[in-house]
Specification:
102 residues, mainly alpha, 5 helices
């Protein structure tokens, strides 16, 4: 178990919000020096906040984990079709097949 952080969750959220309010015009180090922390600490907090936003954001009712599982299943199906002799890439993309007859 890690040690207790000296910074509260509220302070971390405010620091991340302050960095984002700059709209990319200020560096991690510049914002962090105003707060009395290191730039690397702030960068870690922003990265963790981005990861938690992506994991909890549902796109079309589907979380990132659900989407990953769905895409892995589709990929496995494509691999199985290729092993069975299908060379048509469009079948794996969920698009209608192209007839080779002309």
């Amino acid at each position: 178990m890690g040690r207790q952080s000296q910074y509260t969750e509220e302070f971390r959220r405010d620091a991340v919000a302050l960095y984002r309010a700059g709209g990319g015009t200020r560096t991690y180090a510049a914002v962090a020096s105003d707060l009395g922390i290191s730039g690397e600490t702030l960068r870690t907090w922003v990265r963790k906040d981005n990861a938690s936003d992506q994991g909890s954001a549902a796109v079309g009712g589907e979380t990132a984990a659900d989407e990953l599982a769905r895409l892995r299943a589709e990929n496995a199906g494509c691999a199985a079709r290729r092993r069975n002799g299908s060379s048509n890439v469009r079948s794996c993309a969920g698009q209608p097949l192209i007839s080779r007859r002309r």
